[in-house]
Protein backbone atom coordinates (compact mmCIF):
# COMPACT_ATOMS: atom_id res chain seq x y z
CA UNK A 1 0.00 0.00 0.00
CA UNK A 2 2.96 2.32 0.60
CA UNK A 3 3.73 2.34 -3.13
CA UNK A 4 0.16 2.78 -4.39
CA UNK A 5 -0.40 5.68 -6.74
CA UNK A 6 -3.54 7.82 -6.77
CA UNK A 7 -4.76 9.78 -9.78
CA UNK A 8 -7.69 12.17 -9.46
CA UNK A 9 -9.55 12.52 -12.77
CA UNK A 10 -11.36 15.85 -13.20
CA UNK A 11 -13.65 16.34 -16.23
CA UNK A 12 -13.96 20.04 -17.04
CA UNK A 13 -16.16 21.95 -19.47
CA UNK A 14 -15.98 25.76 -19.38
CA UNK A 15 -14.74 25.75 -15.79
CA UNK A 16 -12.29 28.68 -15.92
CA UNK A 17 -13.95 30.33 -12.91
CA UNK A 18 -13.32 27.45 -10.51
CA UNK A 19 -10.54 25.32 -11.98
CA UNK A 20 -7.51 26.96 -10.36
CA UNK A 21 -8.96 26.95 -6.85
CA UNK A 22 -10.29 23.42 -7.32
CA UNK A 23 -6.88 22.08 -8.35
CA UNK A 24 -5.21 23.83 -5.41
CA UNK A 25 -7.71 22.16 -3.09
CA UNK A 26 -7.16 18.73 -4.65
CA UNK A 27 -3.37 19.09 -4.41
CA UNK A 28 -3.77 19.95 -0.73
CA UNK A 29 -5.95 16.86 -0.24
CA UNK A 30 -3.31 14.69 -1.88
CA UNK A 31 -0.65 16.21 0.38
CA UNK A 32 -2.75 15.38 3.44
CA UNK A 33 -3.12 11.78 2.29
CA UNK A 34 0.61 11.56 1.55
CA UNK A 35 1.34 12.81 5.06
CA UNK A 36 -0.44 9.72 6.36
CA UNK A 37 2.24 7.64 4.54
CA UNK A 38 -0.44 5.97 2.46
CA UNK A 39 0.74 7.24 -0.90
CA UNK A 40 4.15 8.77 -0.37
CA UNK A 41 4.46 11.35 -3.15
CA UNK A 42 2.82 9.21 -5.82
CA UNK A 43 -0.32 11.20 -6.52
CA UNK A 44 -1.38 13.46 -9.35
CA UNK A 45 -4.36 15.11 -11.04
CA UNK A 46 -5.54 14.52 -14.60
CA UNK A 47 -7.87 17.21 -15.96
CA UNK A 48 -9.91 16.33 -19.05
CA UNK A 49 -10.96 19.39 -21.05
CA UNK A 50 -14.21 18.39 -22.74
CA UNK A 51 -13.92 20.87 -25.62
CA UNK A 52 -14.25 24.00 -23.49
CA UNK A 53 -14.98 27.31 -25.24
CA UNK A 54 -13.42 29.48 -22.53
CA UNK A 55 -9.87 29.58 -21.09
CA UNK A 56 -10.06 26.22 -19.33
CA UNK A 57 -7.24 24.70 -21.39
CA UNK A 58 -5.01 27.75 -20.92
CA UNK A 59 -5.41 27.34 -17.16
CA UNK A 60 -4.56 23.64 -17.41
CA UNK A 61 -1.37 24.48 -19.31
CA UNK A 62 -0.36 27.02 -16.65
CA UNK A 63 -1.03 24.58 -13.83
CA UNK A 64 0.96 21.88 -15.62
CA UNK A 65 3.87 24.30 -16.05
CA UNK A 66 3.80 24.98 -12.30
CA UNK A 67 3.82 21.32 -11.24
CA UNK A 68 4.16 17.98 -13.00
CA UNK A 69 1.50 16.63 -10.63
CA UNK A 70 -1.12 18.31 -12.83
CA UNK A 71 -1.65 16.65 -16.19
CA UNK A 72 -4.07 17.52 -18.96
CA UNK A 73 -6.01 15.86 -21.74
CA UNK A 74 -7.87 17.93 -24.32
CA UNK A 75 -10.71 16.79 -26.59
CA UNK A 76 -10.96 18.11 -30.15
CA UNK A 77 -14.56 19.13 -29.37
CA UNK A 78 -17.23 18.59 -26.76
CA UNK A 79 -17.96 14.86 -26.45
CA UNK A 80 -19.84 14.93 -23.14
CA UNK A 81 -19.24 14.31 -19.46
CA UNK A 82 -19.35 10.51 -19.66
CA UNK A 83 -16.79 10.43 -22.47
CA UNK A 84 -14.53 12.76 -20.49
CA UNK A 85 -14.67 10.41 -17.51
CA UNK A 86 -13.86 7.39 -19.67
CA UNK A 87 -10.97 9.17 -21.38
CA UNK A 88 -9.55 10.22 -18.03
CA UNK A 89 -9.80 6.72 -16.58
CA UNK A 90 -8.29 5.19 -19.73
CA UNK A 91 -5.26 7.45 -19.45
CA UNK A 92 -4.92 7.31 -15.67
CA UNK A 93 -5.08 3.52 -15.41
CA UNK A 94 -1.78 3.26 -17.31
CA UNK A 95 0.12 4.37 -14.19
CA UNK A 96 -2.33 4.60 -11.27
CA UNK A 97 -3.28 1.92 -8.75
CA UNK A 98 -6.48 3.74 -7.78
CA UNK A 99 -8.46 6.43 -9.56
CA UNK A 100 -10.86 8.98 -8.11
CA UNK A 101 -13.30 10.84 -10.37
CA UNK A 102 -14.72 14.16 -9.23
CA UNK A 103 -16.30 17.13 -11.03
CA UNK A 104 -14.32 20.36 -11.34
CA UNK A 105 -16.79 22.44 -9.32
CA UNK A 106 -15.98 20.39 -6.17
CA UNK A 107 -19.59 20.33 -5.02
CA UNK A 108 -18.68 16.79 -4.04
CA UNK A 109 -16.50 16.91 -0.91
CA UNK A 110 -12.81 16.38 -1.83
CA UNK A 111 -11.93 15.97 1.85
CA UNK A 112 -13.66 12.58 1.68
CA UNK A 113 -11.07 11.25 -0.76
CA UNK A 114 -8.92 10.27 2.22
CA UNK A 115 -11.78 8.11 3.54
CA UNK A 116 -12.08 6.54 0.10
CA UNK A 117 -8.38 5.69 0.09
CA UNK A 118 -8.75 4.11 3.53
CA UNK A 119 -11.66 2.00 2.26
CA UNK A 120 -9.46 0.93 -0.66
CA UNK A 121 -6.74 -0.04 1.81
CA UNK A 122 -9.33 -2.17 3.61
CA UNK A 123 -9.98 -4.13 0.42
CA UNK A 124 -12.70 -2.25 -1.47
CA UNK A 125 -12.22 -2.04 -5.24
CA UNK A 126 -15.00 0.51 -5.68
CA UNK A 127 -15.84 3.25 -3.18
CA UNK A 128 -18.98 5.27 -3.88
CA UNK A 129 -19.36 8.86 -2.77
CA UNK A 130 -22.98 9.11 -1.61
CA UNK A 131 -24.78 12.34 -0.75
CA UNK A 132 -26.40 12.25 2.66
CA UNK A 133 -28.75 15.07 1.65
CA UNK A 134 -29.80 17.08 -1.41
CA UNK A 135 -30.26 20.46 0.28
CA UNK A 136 -28.41 22.28 -2.49
CA UNK A 137 -30.87 20.99 -5.11
CA UNK A 138 -34.19 22.61 -5.94
CA UNK A 139 -37.44 20.94 -4.88
CA UNK A 140 -38.05 19.96 -8.50
CA UNK A 141 -34.63 18.33 -8.89
CA UNK A 142 -34.93 16.46 -5.57
CA UNK A 143 -38.38 15.15 -6.45
CA UNK A 144 -37.50 14.11 -9.99
CA UNK A 145 -34.26 12.48 -8.81
CA UNK A 146 -36.09 10.32 -6.28
CA UNK A 147 -38.70 9.44 -8.88
CA UNK A 148 -35.96 8.48 -11.32
CA UNK A 149 -34.24 6.19 -8.82
CA UNK A 150 -37.55 4.49 -8.05
CA UNK A 151 -38.33 4.09 -11.75
CA UNK A 152 -34.97 2.46 -12.44
CA UNK A 153 -35.47 0.12 -9.50
CA UNK A 154 -38.87 -0.92 -10.87
CA UNK A 155 -37.21 -1.56 -14.23
CA UNK A 156 -34.69 -3.86 -12.56
CA UNK A 157 -31.68 -1.55 -12.80
CA UNK A 158 -29.16 -1.71 -9.95
CA UNK A 159 -28.17 1.82 -8.97
CA UNK A 160 -26.65 3.40 -5.86
CA UNK A 161 -29.13 6.10 -4.73
CA UNK A 162 -27.76 9.64 -4.42
CA UNK A 163 -24.48 8.66 -6.06
CA UNK A 164 -23.33 10.54 -9.14
CA UNK A 165 -19.78 10.17 -10.48
CA UNK A 166 -17.72 10.84 -7.34
CA UNK A 167 -16.02 7.51 -6.68
CA UNK A 168 -12.76 5.66 -6.23
CA UNK A 169 -11.94 2.61 -8.33
CA UNK A 170 -9.00 0.24 -8.13
CA UNK A 171 -6.83 -0.44 -11.16
CA UNK A 172 -8.44 -3.82 -11.81
CA UNK A 173 -11.95 -2.38 -11.46
CA UNK A 174 -11.16 0.32 -14.03
CA UNK A 175 -9.55 -2.18 -16.39
CA UNK A 176 -12.65 -4.37 -16.14
CA UNK A 177 -14.97 -1.41 -16.72
CA UNK A 178 -13.03 -0.37 -19.83
CA UNK A 179 -13.73 -3.78 -21.36
CA UNK A 180 -17.36 -2.70 -21.84
CA UNK A 181 -17.32 -1.43 -25.45
CA UNK A 182 -20.74 0.21 -25.80
CA UNK A 183 -20.96 3.85 -26.89
CA UNK A 184 -24.35 4.54 -25.30
CA UNK A 185 -23.04 4.31 -21.77
CA UNK A 186 -24.35 5.29 -18.34
CA UNK A 187 -21.36 4.91 -16.05
CA UNK A 188 -23.07 5.08 -12.67
CA UNK A 189 -25.43 2.31 -13.74
CA UNK A 190 -22.71 0.14 -15.23
CA UNK A 191 -20.24 0.23 -12.32
CA UNK A 192 -22.45 -1.88 -9.98
CA UNK A 193 -22.45 -4.62 -12.62
CA UNK A 194 -18.68 -5.14 -12.24
CA UNK A 195 -19.17 -7.25 -9.12
CA UNK A 196 -16.16 -6.16 -7.06
CA UNK A 197 -16.18 -5.43 -3.33
CA UNK A 198 -17.66 -2.00 -2.68
CA UNK A 199 -17.89 0.56 0.10
CA UNK A 200 -19.70 3.86 0.57
CA UNK A 201 -18.50 7.20 1.90
CA UNK A 202 -21.18 9.72 2.80
CA UNK A 203 -20.77 13.47 2.39
CA UNK A 204 -22.69 16.72 2.24
CA UNK A 205 -22.91 18.29 -1.21
CA UNK A 206 -22.14 22.01 -1.27
CA UNK A 207 -23.17 24.82 -3.66
CA UNK A 208 -20.89 25.78 -6.54
CA UNK A 209 -18.14 28.24 -5.63
CA UNK A 210 -18.64 30.15 -8.89
CA UNK A 211 -20.04 29.77 -12.38
CA UNK A 212 -23.17 27.95 -13.49
CA UNK A 213 -24.18 24.31 -13.67
CA UNK A 214 -23.24 22.64 -16.95
CA UNK A 215 -26.29 20.37 -16.65
CA UNK A 216 -29.46 22.32 -17.54
CA UNK A 217 -32.85 20.59 -17.43
CA UNK A 218 -32.77 19.56 -21.10
CA UNK A 219 -29.39 17.85 -20.71
CA UNK A 220 -30.44 16.16 -17.46
CA UNK A 221 -33.57 14.72 -19.11
CA UNK A 222 -31.52 13.41 -22.04
CA UNK A 223 -28.99 11.93 -19.61
CA UNK A 224 -31.77 10.24 -17.63
CA UNK A 225 -33.28 8.73 -20.78
CA UNK A 226 -29.84 7.48 -21.88
CA UNK A 227 -29.54 5.82 -18.49
CA UNK A 228 -32.77 3.89 -19.00
CA UNK A 229 -32.17 2.85 -22.61
CA UNK A 230 -28.54 1.83 -22.04
CA UNK A 231 -29.27 -0.41 -19.07
CA UNK A 232 -32.62 -2.08 -19.74
CA UNK A 233 -35.05 -3.07 -22.51
CA UNK A 234 -37.98 -2.67 -20.13
CA UNK A 235 -39.55 0.18 -22.19
CA UNK A 236 -39.85 -2.20 -25.16
CA UNK A 237 -41.46 -4.82 -22.94
CA UNK A 238 -43.83 -2.16 -21.63
CA UNK A 239 -44.90 -1.51 -25.22
CA UNK A 240 -45.74 -5.21 -25.58
CA UNK A 241 -47.82 -5.08 -22.40
CA UNK A 242 -49.69 -1.95 -23.51
CA UNK A 243 -50.34 -3.47 -26.92
CA UNK A 244 -51.68 -6.65 -25.36
CA UNK A 245 -53.96 -4.71 -23.02
CA UNK A 246 -55.24 -2.59 -25.91
CA UNK A 247 -56.07 -5.73 -27.92
CA UNK A 248 -57.88 -7.27 -24.95
CA UNK A 249 -59.82 -4.04 -24.46
CA UNK A 250 -60.79 -4.03 -28.14
CA UNK A 251 -61.96 -7.66 -27.96
CA UNK A 252 -63.99 -6.83 -24.87
CA UNK A 253 -65.67 -3.90 -26.65
CA UNK A 254 -66.51 -6.13 -29.66
CA UNK A 255 -68.09 -8.74 -27.38
CA UNK A 256 -70.03 -5.99 -25.60
CA UNK A 257 -71.33 -4.62 -28.92
CA UNK A 258 -72.42 -8.09 -30.10
CA UNK A 259 -74.26 -8.80 -26.85
CA UNK A 260 -76.03 -5.44 -27.01
CA UNK A 261 -77.03 -6.11 -30.63
CA UNK A 262 -78.44 -9.52 -29.73
CA UNK A 263 -80.48 -7.92 -26.97
CA UNK A 264 -81.90 -5.45 -29.45
CA UNK A 265 -80.18 -2.49 -27.86
CA UNK A 266 -78.46 0.25 -29.80
CA UNK A 267 -74.81 0.75 -29.03
CA UNK A 268 -74.05 4.45 -28.66
CA UNK A 269 -70.60 5.81 -28.30
CA UNK A 270 -69.10 7.74 -31.18
CA UNK A 271 -67.28 9.91 -28.65
CA UNK A 272 -65.89 6.82 -26.94
CA UNK A 273 -64.90 5.43 -30.33
CA UNK A 274 -62.97 8.57 -31.24
CA UNK A 275 -61.27 8.67 -27.85
CA UNK A 276 -60.30 5.02 -28.28
CA UNK A 277 -58.88 5.71 -31.74
CA UNK A 278 -56.82 8.63 -30.48
CA UNK A 279 -55.65 6.58 -27.50
CA UNK A 280 -54.52 3.66 -29.65
CA UNK A 281 -52.92 6.04 -32.13
CA UNK A 282 -51.03 7.72 -29.32
CA UNK A 283 -49.77 4.38 -28.03
CA UNK A 284 -48.61 3.49 -31.54
CA UNK A 285 -46.69 6.74 -31.96
CA UNK A 286 -45.03 6.39 -28.56
CA UNK A 287 -44.19 2.78 -29.35
CA UNK A 288 -42.59 3.74 -32.66
CA UNK A 289 -40.61 6.45 -30.90
CA UNK A 290 -39.25 4.11 -28.24
CA UNK A 291 -38.41 1.39 -30.75
CA UNK A 292 -36.79 3.98 -33.00
CA UNK A 293 -34.67 5.18 -30.09
CA UNK A 294 -33.34 1.68 -29.50
CA UNK A 295 -32.72 1.12 -33.22
CA UNK A 296 -30.86 4.44 -33.40
CA UNK A 297 -28.65 3.48 -30.48
CA UNK A 298 -28.06 0.05 -32.00
CA UNK A 299 -26.99 1.72 -35.25
CA UNK A 300 -24.49 3.83 -33.32
CA UNK A 301 -23.10 0.75 -31.59
CA UNK A 302 -22.53 -1.30 -34.76
CA UNK A 303 -20.64 1.55 -36.43
CA UNK A 304 -17.97 1.32 -33.70
CA UNK A 305 -17.14 5.00 -33.90
CA UNK A 306 -14.67 6.27 -31.28
CA UNK A 307 -16.20 7.73 -28.13
CA UNK A 308 -13.95 10.79 -28.34
CA UNK A 309 -10.96 12.32 -30.11
CA UNK A 310 -7.97 13.49 -28.08
CA UNK A 311 -6.30 16.61 -29.44
CA UNK A 312 -3.55 17.19 -26.87
CA UNK A 313 -2.06 15.41 -23.86
CA UNK A 314 0.09 17.10 -21.22
CA UNK A 315 1.97 14.38 -19.40
TrEMBL record:
Topology class, membrane: Multi-pass membrane protein
InterPro entries named in the record: Glyco_trans_2-like, Glycosyltransferase_2, Nucleotide-diphossugar_trans
Pfam families: Glycos_transf_2 (PF00535)
Coiled coil: none
Compartments, as annotated in UniProt: Membrane
Main location: membrane
Single GO molecular function: glycosyltransferase activity
Keywords: Glycosyltransferase, Membrane, Transferase, Transmembrane, Transmembrane helix
All residue ranges annotated as the Glycosyltransferase 2-like domain in the record: 7-176
Source organism, top-level taxon: Bacteria
Organism: Loigolactobacillus backii
Bilayer-crossing regions: 238-259, 271-295
Protein's recorded name: Putative glycosyltransferase
Keyword presence, Transferase: yes
